[in-house]
Amino acid sequence: MTREHIIKKSGDGYKVVTAPVGAITEKLPSDYSTIQIADNMYYYYGGDYYKDYKDGKYIVVTPPKGASVSYLPDGYETKEIDGVTYYVYNGVWYQAKTQSDNVVYVVDDKQSG
Predict the structure, then answer these.
(1) DSSP assignment string, 19-71
(2) Tens of pLDDT, residues 69-105
(3) Which of 27, 43, 55, 103 has the CB geometry, 3.0–4.6 Å to 50, for a possible disulfide?
């Protein structure tokens, strides 16, 4: 099960939805990126975060606080609180930061779960 294959009935059709935390997949989406936080390796694709599980499989996990990603999927919202702009996708709050002259989105530790 990967994000490309998770669909949900919506009205008269279907839509792609975010993989639920705890879902297990045998392979990662082809365009995933890696995120290293302390001694933990995460994989990111389309708003979903994965970790190695067992037997060569991967598990969808809660976004790690402090993770930075180069993009957010379509459908994020912007919210401003006390003059700070946040980007919210699937209940996860991000702040845009500049890193090596590039904009990255960092999971915010004050607003997210």
Answers:
(1) PPTT-EESS--TT-EEEEETTEEEEEETTEEEEE-STT-EEEEPPPTT-EES-
(2) 999 988 899 999 999 999 999 889 999 999 899 999 9
(3) 43
